[in-house]
Structures are given as C-alpha cells and as structure tokens.
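User: Run a structure prediction on this.
Assistant: Running it now.
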Amino acid sequence: MASLMEMKEIFRSADAVCFDVDSTVIREEGIDELAKFCGVGDAVAEMTRRAMGGTVTFKAALTARLGLIRPSYEQVQKLISDNPPQLTPGIRELVSRLHQRGVQVFLVSGGFQSIVEHVALQLNIPTANVFANRLKFYFNGEYAGFDETQPTAESGGKGKVITHLKEQFQFKKVVMIGDGATDMEACPPGDCFIGFGGNVIRKQVKEKAKWYITHFDELLKELEER
C-alpha cells in the first residue's frame, strides 16, 4: 500500500486523472436533481444515500431510481437548460492546470451522459473522455430505460473504465478522484485514489481513504510544488 507521500508523487506524475462528477466536479447529485425536477425527489435521494454508502449494487439502485423517475427526453433537456449543473469551486482551475501539464482528464460517472457532457464542455474536456450512463427514450421522447452495457452502469464499472484506458493509451499512472464508494473501489486498477469531501462527506470514504481533501486548491498546491 502506497504511503501518502508516494500517493502525492503519483498524482504529480500521473498520465491521466479521472474525476467522478456528481458531488465531486459538480456540487449536486445529478440523479437527485432530475428526481426533484420530476417530482419524486425525497424517495430517490434516500436510494442515492444507500447506493453511495455501498450497501446495494449500483445497477440495482440505478434501476430502482430511474424506475421511479421515468424522465422523458424533454424533462432531461429542460433540467439542463433551467438548472445547469454547478461546478465545484476550484475544479476549473485544476483541470486547466492538468491540461497545461499534458495530463489527460476524464470524467467517469454513474450519472447521465447528456448532463456529464454539458459539464465536460465547460471544462474543455473532449466528449470522447466522458464515460457515463446513457438514458434510452422511445420515439415520442418517453423514458425507455438505460443502456445496461455501459461499464458505469454497474458496481466496479469505474475500475473497468480505468483498465480500458490503461490498455488503450498505455497510461502508467492513473489517479481517481471522487466522493463515493464506487470511486474508491476503482483503485486498483487505478494507481491512486483521492477522496473528495468538498460537497458531501461519505463516512466510509473519509475513514478509508489515505488521501482525503475538501477543496481542489489542495491539489493545485501539490502541482505548484513541482
């Protein structure tokens, strides 16, 4: 197991950094915002808490939550235009600095492609670097389920994405940053996990993560030291 000092060195010399999105890159949980928008906020928020705590499988929680929300294509688009995701303070500067250093930045999310791509656009991250869940709709725009073949649709999916990235790009050091159990589980194959508690603190992650931060400035400072 790497020490904190070794983890900091991995971060400073990483080829790629993968960020979780909900409650990490953005302040909200996208699925909870969508649920509120569709009038089933409280029931879905409770399911999210259980999923993030690692007590149910991610796919089971996602299926149950979306079964309650049943968002139409129009509702998803209206949510993005009326209530766009709010970036977490410091993330824009951190991503920009990583890009300047030639580090590839990826968004790896259990949230939804359409929302995450909107976030990627604001951070100058190519949509090809987005791995998220895809909602499916019928021709009339009604909810038709989600693409269960996406790796991010199941527990352990973020680790599968990192394995894929290492194989495709020959990355030697990949860092995963996030607030939840699914992010922590991605290391290994990720080389370093940084727990993030700037928007919400998950007890399990805070207790188990060797490197835990509450503001992205802490990571910017690490980069400036070299």
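The first strand starts at residue 16 and ends at 19.
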